[in-house]
Amino acid sequence: MTAPVYDDQNVFAKIMRGEIPSHTVYEDEKTLVIMDIMPRGDGHILVIPKAPSRNIFDIAAEDLNAVMATVQKMAHAVIKAFDANGTTIQQFSEPAGGQVVFHTHVHVIPRFDGVKLRPHTGEMADNEVLAANAEKIRAALA
């Protein structure tokens, strides 16, 4: 499979350039963490590498390592912030794999015993709820 070329007009590239607003939860030299605006569960966040890559097939190993270190940090933070019982970690690559935004990203979703993930409806969450959830996670990181 020959992967298509990275498109720097994707929504996450625009967020990193400040062209689209987002609820930033955490940032370091190599990664950015934002709230998913269509959360499948309370506290659903996205870990994004700052370096451009389309998905698992073209991300540089050092960027993938940085992403996964941040994923682990965020998994601990969402468990603490939401008193969750576990997490679901997801990464989708290419349309056949379920990828919709073509900039590498990893979903971190707090999970609770007996509570199913909400369906991916494409409906955006309430901005105030996203802001409050982002603050809970930032507080758990402090």
Polypeptide structure, described:
This protein is an alpha+beta fold and 142 residues long. Helix content is 30%, strand content 18%. The protein is built from three helices and five strands; from the N terminus they run H-E-E-E-H-E-E-H. It is globular and about 40 Å long. The N and C termini lie far apart (43 Å). The mean pLDDT is 95.
Shape: globular
Give me the CATH architecture, please: 2-Layer Sandwich
Radius of gyration: 14 Å
Ends distance: 43 Å
What is the N-to-C succession of helices and strands?
HEEEHEEH
The portion of residues assigned to helices is: 25-40%
Strand content: 15-25%
Category by helix and strand content: alpha+beta
| Biggest β-sheet: strands ordered side by side in the sheet | 1-2-3-5-4
* Overall pLDDT level: 95
Number of strands: 5
Number of helices: 3
The low-confidence runs, each spanning 5 or more residues with pLDDT under 50, are: none
Q: What's the number of domains?
A: 1
Largest sheet data: 5 strands, antiparallel
Question: What's the CATH superfamily, by name?
Answer: HIT-like
